[in-house]
Amino acid sequence: MTKEIDSLKKSLRGEVLQNESMSKHTSFRIGGPAEIFVKPIDVRDLKTAIKWAKRNKLQIFVIGNGTNLIVSDEGVEGIVIKIGEAFSDVEFDNKEAFVQAGTTIQSLLEQAMKLGLGGMEFAWGIPGAVGGSIAMNAGSNSHFISTKINRVNVMDFNGKIYKLNHDDLRFDYRYSILQDEQLILTDALFTFDRKDITFMEHEKEISIKSRWENQPINYPCAGSVFKNPPTTYAGKVLEEVGCKGMQTGGAKISEKHANFIVNLGNATANDVINLIREAQYRVYKQKDLILELEVKLVGQFENVSFLERKK
Ligand SMILES: Cc1cc2nc3c(=O)[nH]c(=O)nc-3n(C[C@H](O)[C@H](O)[C@H](O)COP(=O)(O)OP(=O)(O)OC[C@H]3O[C@@H](n4cnc5c(N)ncnc54)[C@H](O)[C@@H]3O)c2cc1C
């Protein structure tokens, strides 16, 4: 493999790292090593990395800001491709913005606000990048990023680029087809609304303040662990069954918000998984309700099973 990796290093202009700790690339600060970790600098580089991975029959996993991930302590086999800062161009044209996938949602909102463009105030404080946020159909308070997406460009695992329209992405609550297909989002066309800048600044302030008051964002975490069930909030039921404050090793269910697990400093992915299973089981036993995971598990999680709702 050394020869192949050397050839990748020669042909890629972005970084190529081996055994890179994923704890450096996740907001949870958890995760073992990625066998190969690359940061392409543009679409051409991305294609080079993908084709190389395909040629060498390696698994490919793409990440953005790593804010919705639990990465196994054993790490990730194959290649992890980070769509990062190099993909952060934003071009505005009237009310539309053509945005590269590595742009953070916060940077996009700031840039749009300066131009008097808004309509995505619900997303203040969401720490992901555009690609990951569209893949997850991120949002809050019943608002979703999907409502602002007109179309996207994606690259498949053969390096081919496609244009997908809004409906092709089959958005649903915390879902888009990007989670199931071998597609990497490279850019997206957003449509904003004209809004008053003072109004938007006010909304931003309220949103950020509310997050600081209600979420444990001073600790490493990955946002909401479970999706909200159709008729209630996951945080509410978890609190009702007494999950707040539960701790395993260095992982703890936040006292502030029961749907957040925080890393107290030395948490492992296993600590987090054990807490998730215990919390999920308690809710099932006491409420006859199965909470589904919102966070994504990455890497080897052998012998880990969760309760699953019947489809
Ligand atoms: C403190 C905190 C608060 C949060 N609050 C919210 C909230 O209010 N609402 C909400 O919805 N989420 C929230 N989250 C979760 C998270 O921020 C969102 O899901 C986020 O948008 C994910 O973006 P990311 O770039 O970090 O994706 P990652 O975590 O890197 O990846 C998430 C998924 O997207 C895929 N993916 C990433 N990039 C691409 C790409 N370019 N192409 C295709 N697939 C890709 C990955 O393979 C993975 O399956 C919060 C997280 C934290 C830590």
Please give a structural write-up.
With 311 residues, the protein is α+β, with helices and mostly antiparallel strands. It folds into 3 domains: 2-82, Uridine Diphospho-n-acetylenolpyruvylglucosamine Reductase, domain 2 (2-Layer Sandwich), CATH 3.30.43; 86-198, Uridine Diphospho-n-acetylenolpyruvylglucosamine Reductase, domain 3, CATH 3.30.465.10; 217-298, Uridine Diphospho-n-acetylenolpyruvylglucosamine Reductase, domain 1, CATH 3.90.78.10. The chain is globular, with a radius of gyration of 20 Å. 27% of the residues lie in helices and 27% in strands. The longest helix is centred in the last third of the chain and has 19 residues, at 269-287. It has a 5-stranded antiparallel beta sheet with strand order 6-7-13-11-12, with helices on one face. It has a 4-stranded mixed beta sheet with strand order 1-2-5-3, covered by helices on one side. The protein has a 4-stranded antiparallel beta sheet with strand order 15-18-17-16.
Top keywords for this entry?
311 residues; alpha+beta; Uridine Diphospho-n-acetylenolpyruvylglucosamine Reductase, domain 2; Uridine Diphospho-n-acetylenolpyruvylglucosamine Reductase, domain 3; Uridine Diphospho-n-acetylenolpyruvylglucosamine Reductase, domain 1; 5-stranded antiparallel beta sheet; 4-stranded mixed beta sheet; 27% helix; globular; binds flavin-adenine dinucleotide
